[in-house]
Amino acid sequence: MVRCFLIHTVCPVSALSAGESRVLYSRVFGPDDGVLSERHRELSPEERRLLQKEKVAAVARQVRSAVSLSRESSGRLIVETMPGEENLALQDADCGVVRLRAGDPFSEETSALWLGVQSLGFTLVCEPHENLLLAEGTLRNLTRHCLEHLHMLGQGSEVLLKSNRIDVLLSRLLPHGQLLFLNHRFAQSLEKEVAAYMAK
Asked: Domain of life here (predicted)?
C-alpha cells in the first residue's frame, strides 16, 4: 500500500532558505500513525494534523536532498521547458528511491520513490513489501497527468488551487492508496476517463 503522495519543491525558491522544501500538495492514505501509536492517543485532532504535516515535510526534505545529490553527481543542467513540452520534461526527470528508516518519520520502515521534474518533486511513500516497479509506473503516470492536464510547469502555476483535480487523479489511478495492475484495455479506458474529466 502507498502511505502518501506529495508534490513539493526540490530547488531553492526565493521565499525559502537553501535547504528548505515547500510541500505544495499531500495526500495520506490508510490509518494515521498517530492513531495507532499509544503515546499519541491523547493528542487533539489539530495536534495530530500538525504531526502528520511534520511527517510529510520530513519526507519532502529527505527527497529534496536526494534530488540535489542526484543532480550534482550527474552534472546535467536543468533545462526549463515551455508549456506543451511536459513529456520532454518528464523524460529528463531525475528519479530514485530513498529508504526511510523506522521512526524517521513513520513508525515502520518505508520507501519514498521520487521524480524530480525541474523545480517540482513528485513522491510516493510505499510500505516496504510494495512492488517498487509498479509504484514507479504509477508515479510516472500520475506525474504525466499532473504536468499535462494541470500545466504545473508554467509561470504562475498554482498547485494549491488545483488540489481537487489532483484528488480526482488519485482516486482513479491510486484508489485508497492501492497500486493497480492495469491491462492495456483498462489502462486506455482509465486514460479516456481522466482526460474527459480534466477537459471540463
From this structure: Eukaryota
125 CB-side CA count, 13 A: 28
Number of structural domains (the chain) is 1
Write the burial class of residue 85 (CB in 10 Å: 0-12 exposed, 13-18 middle, 19+ buried).
Answer: middle
Give the number of other CB atoms < 10 A from CB of residue 86.
23
pTM of the model: 0.85
Residue 107 is given by DSSP the state: S
Domain containing residue 94: 2-198
pLDDT tens profile 18-71: 557 889 899 998 765 544 555 666 778 888 888 889 999 999 999 999 998 888
What is the longest distance spanned by two Cα atoms in the chain? 50
